[in-house]
Amino acid sequence: MKNIMLKIWFVWESIFEKLAGIHPVPGGFFRIAIRRYRGDKLTCLDGTILNPGEKYGELHLNNKFFIGLSKQDRSPAFLGIASLRESKKAFSSLKEYTKSNPLFKDVNVFMGYTLLNRGINRLGFEVHDIKSGFIKNLVSNYEKMLLAILHPEGFKRVMSKKLVSKQVLITKKTLEKLY
């Protein structure tokens, strides 16, 4: 049953990637799209300002990458450690990719939504609550469904924790400084 759900999910994901202009970052960990910011003026901890209408990089984790990791070892502890190790390489790839790609010349902030937000500030991210209750519930439920499909412990993992999606962001300055 889980394999069928995964196949359906990845078909949907590939269609969504094309429609939403999301493309892979070399290394396989991240996927990215360029978007126009529609929120209130945002001042980041390092002083970077993101104004309404400015470009930002919308980050997505590559779920196929994580499925590949889980095939090596299905234990949640292994996945956590391997993901942390791989994320450090991925940030260097993201930095180089966005530095060398002229499309990202005016992009100074990279952000996304994630349930996987505990401790992410140690990687250089800022973590913010999602202001809109509707968006927070929509994203949280979507990501819980995805986690239930992808995580080795499936629905058990989702039901055992109070998981809420957060907005996470990292600036180009922070990315260059840390990676």
Tag the structure with descriptive keywords.
alpha+beta; two-stranded antiparallel sheet; 6 helices; 179 residues; globular
Question: What's the arrangement of secondary structure elements?
Answer:
Layout: H1 2-20, E1 23-24, E2 30-36, E3 42-43, E4 49-50, E5 55-61, H2 63-72, H3 76-100, E6 109-114, E7 126-128, H4 133-150, H5 154-160, E8 166-171, H6 172-178
Parallel strand pairs: 5-6
Antiparallel strand pairs: 1-2, 2-5, 3-4, 6-8, 7-8
Protein name: YkoP-like domain-containing protein
Description:
InterPro entries: YkoP-like_dom. Pfam families: YkoP. This is YkoP-like domain-containing protein. With about 180 residues, the chain is an alpha+beta fold. The chain has one domain. It is built from six helices and eight strands. The protein has helices at about 1-20, 65-70, 75-100, 135-150, 155-160, 170-179, and strands at about 25, 30-35, 40-45, 50, 55-60, 110-115, 125-130, 165-170. The strands form two sheets. The protein has a six-stranded mixed beta sheet. Helix 4 (about 135-150) packs antiparallel against helix 5 (about 155-160).
